[in-house]
Structure formats: C-alpha cells, structure tokens
Amino acid sequence: MNLKDQLWIIKSRLLEKRNLLFMLVLFFVFIVIIISLTFYNCIKFINYSDIVKPNSRNIYIEIDNPSEESLKQINQIPHVIFAISGQTYQTGFFNNKSSNSIYITPLIEKEEITLINGKNLKNKNDMLCPNNFYPYDFKDVMDTKNYLKGKEVLNKTVTINNEVFTIVGTYDAPKIRNTTYNCYISEKDFQKLVTNHNNITIRVDKLENRNLVIQELKNMGYNNINTQYINFNNNLIYTGITIILIILFISFAIIYNFTKKKIRYHLNNYGILKASGYKNKQLFHIELLENLIISTICFMISTISFIIVYNLIVTNINILNIAVYNSEITLEINYFYIFISYLLVIIMLFIATKYLTSQYLNKTIKYLLKDE
C-alpha cells in the first residue's frame, strides 16, 4: 500500500465522529500542556533571577573616601573582577523630561550584556539601554504602549547632571534580569558623575566565590561588608516539574484510551484489509499517520488560540506588567516550549498507537471481523 492509498483511507474517515471528538480532546491536551510549560518557564525565570543578575556577585563596603591604594589591594584579591569607589548608579531623564527617570550604571564587565541592536560603547557619552525600553514614570497603571522596542530606542537622549548621553545600542535586559529602565554608560563617563564616595563596590567572578572574597576582606580589616540576599528555592522548580509530570501522565492516559477506542472501532476494516493481503506494518502506518495529521491540526489550532488569549488577557494584567517592568517575571511566550509540547504529544501518540496496533492486529482475521 503506497502513501496515496493510505491518505485516501485517512481522508475517507478523518471527519468521523470519533475523530472529531479525538480532535477536541487533543486540543485541550495541547492547551493544558502549553500552559503548564509556560508556568514552568515563569517559575524558572523567577527562581534563577538572583543567580543570573550581575549585581548578585557584588560586595559592598561602607567606607568614607577610600584611597587608590586600598582599591588597588582589593583588585588584587583572587576572584575579584573590579573594585570601584562611589555609588554604582545614577538617575537620568529621558529626552530632558524631568518626569521620566531611568537607572544608570557603569558597564565595567563587557561580557555582562548581550548586544541586540546598534553598537557597543565606544565614544564619550554613549549609552546602552534595554531592547524593550520603558523610560516613563507611572503611578498605579502602566501603559505598555509606551514601550520603545528595538531600533526605536536608538539615538534617543538621556540627561544626567546636565550631561546629554545618546543611546547607541540596545541589549537583552531580561537575560540578566535587569529592569526595563536600566541603561549603561562607560566607567570613565560614570566616574565623572559620581559625587558620593562613601563605599566600595566589588564584583567577583562567580557567585560561589563571594564568601572567599568576603573572608579576604575581613582579613584585611574591612568590617562593614554587605551583599545582596540570594533567593533561590529548588522546591519551586521541583513543584513545576511535578505538575508537568502529572499533566503528562493524565494526558497519556487520555490519549491511550481514545486511541484504543479508535482502533477497536476500525478493527472490521483492518480485518478486511488483512484478508486482502495487507501487512500489520502497513495498517500501523495508516493509524499512526492519521493520528499525526489529527494532532498537527489540533496543535496549530491550540497554539494560535493560546497566543491570542494569552496576549488579550495575561499581557493586559497591570500587576504582571509592573513585575515585567521590574524584571521580576517574564511574560514572553517561549515558542521552544510550545514546540516541546507538540513533540511530547507525538511521542505519546506513537507509543499508544504502536502498542495497541500490535496488540489487536496480531489477532486472527476471524477475530478482527467479529470485533465491534
């Protein structure tokens, strides 16, 4: 039996009542799996936020007017990337509007960011800002239409202490959990803006080396040492994985049950085909191809439905938008996880179809013709 004959058989029964019901079931299976994977993606983003933030590797020492010699000694400590004096942030005003403040930090560790548009910091008063940039203040409700995205951000200006900076590039802020209003300028430009030298900011190469550096600092006589609290809870990840596994188990049970009923319903037809000389392998291919076609149709419909509903409802919840603004969560749809949901359902369909066709089609032709 060639592919054309197989497709003809599938076409003749594709719109049967059982197949339409199976499509409806698969639609909801896809929706539930996609939602669970999206939820897991959000949990993972939250849980790993403090780990991927560059500032999490910072150590702060409270000290008035630290000397160049003390900074030099600290910079020589193993695992220290840099040590600078003064505060490590400034506030600026977007397009000279005093009501629109943004957060400015020096770009000392160039590997810290991933450039998306434009160019890196090269000239005086160059600036990098998030690729999804929200430089506007708001009180209770934020308007997501005010986001500047991609190349829209380029060539805008930010004023800091009467110094005008030009945005020459954009970077991936969510990747390092920076806020949507966190911009970078060069260390040289930043040092000219610093007026308060009452602390030292130190950055270590890896989070696990932070305690080693703190111990070295204590040995050197520094006591007023502060670090950012790291909030990491594996239980959140385990909870998300457990929920996904439960949903997948239930989904497989549903798929197995409907596949079984569908195969039993077609046993008479398969008995006739076997009597006509067709092999079990050919009949398995018919059943599997039919399930693949049905599942692909359902996947496309469920994915489009999910994206439409997600964008209409979830992305318009103000409290979630504020959390995105502060880089506390992500509302971006992970299309890789959506594709994974398709693969998972295909694998479940293959296993169920393979097992059930081998179980039923290996019976005698007489049994197949009798079974309803």
Describe it for me?
There is one protein chain. By secondary structure, the chain is an alpha+beta fold. 50% of the residues lie in helices and 17% in strands. It is built from twelve helices and 13 strands. Strands 3, 4, 5, 6, 9, 10 and 11 form a seven-stranded mixed sheet that branches. Strands 2-12-1-13 form a four-stranded antiparallel sheet, with helices on one face. Helix 2 (17-47) runs antiparallel to helix 7 (234-265) and helix 7 runs parallel beside helix 11 (335-361).
Break the fold down into its secondary structure elements and pairings:
Blueprint: H1 3-13, H2 17-47, H3 49-52, E1 58-62, H4 68-75, E2 80-85, E3 90-94, E4 101-107, E5 115-118, E6 126-130, E7 132-133, E8 148-149, E9 157-160, E10 163-171, E11 182-186, H5 187-193, E12 199-204, H6 210-219, E13 225-227, H7 234-265, H8 267-275, H9 280-313, H10 318-325, H11 335-361, H12 365-370
Parallel strand pairs: 4-11, 6-10
Antiparallel strand pairs: 1-12, 1-13, 2-12, 3-4, 3-9, 5-10, 7-8, 9-10
Helix pairs in contact: 1-9, 2-7, 2-9, 2-11, 7-11, 9-11
Structural class of the helices, strands and pairings?
Answer: alpha+beta
Helix content: 40-55%
Mean pLDDT: 85
- The SSE order reads HHHEHEEEEEEEEEEHEHEHHHHHH
Tell me about the largest β-sheet: 7 strands, mixed
How large is the count of helical segments? Answer: 12
* Beta content: 15-25%
Q: What is the radius of gyration?
A: 30 Å
Counting DSSP E segments of at least 2 residues, the number of strands comes to 13
The low-confidence parts are none
User: What is the general shape?
Assistant: elongated
Give the N-terminus to C-terminus distance in angstroms.
24 Å
